[in-house]
Design goal:
seven-stranded mixed beta sheet, 2 helices, Nucleoside Triphosphate Pyrophosphohydrolase, single chain, 7 strands
């Protein structure tokens, strides 16, 4: 992988893993490559002037319109090939709600759609997001 600076460094992203007590998970449909059109966890790059905790709240609001969900850091994912664009490390945060009907997501920003999916009926997912969901539900 070519780098344009003396010391290579990875990009840092956050992913919001939001579960409902009904056994659903919140996903967005990606508007842009890579994995355009596939479903994924809401998330994105951490800006230089924010913490990962601020970034996950911002990304959730930008991509789904949802606010008021508390998050707890779950796990950091850093497989070398998890993002085909470049080296990316993601901090995953988990949020839990009671009823998905109380949170009506609307795809916006770089998401063409946002929907609740039953955990036993997931669509094809981008990146390593299927593994992330499996890891979280195993706990």
């Amino acid at each position: 992988m070519p780098y344009s600076y003396k010391y290579p460094r990875p990009a840092l992203t956050v992913d919001a893993l939001v579960f409902s007590s009904e056994g659903k998970v919140l996903l967005i449909q990606r508007k842009n490559p890579p994995f355009q059109g596939l479903w994924a966890l809401p998330g994105g790059f951490v800006d230089m002037d924010e913490t990962p905790e601020q970034a996950v709240v911002r990304e959730l609001k930008e991509e789904t319109g949802l606010t008021g969900i508390s998050f707890k850091q779950f796990h950091t994912y850093g497989a070398l090939d998890r993002d085909p664009r470049h080296r990316t490390i993601s901090i995953v945060f988990v949020g839990k709600i009671i009823k998905s009907i109380d949170y009506k997501p609307l795809g916006s920003d770089d998401a063409t759609a946002a929907e609740w999916f039953n955990l036993d009926q997931l669509p094809e997912l981008a990146f390593d997001h299927h593994q992330i969901i499996l890891d979280a539900t195993a706990r």
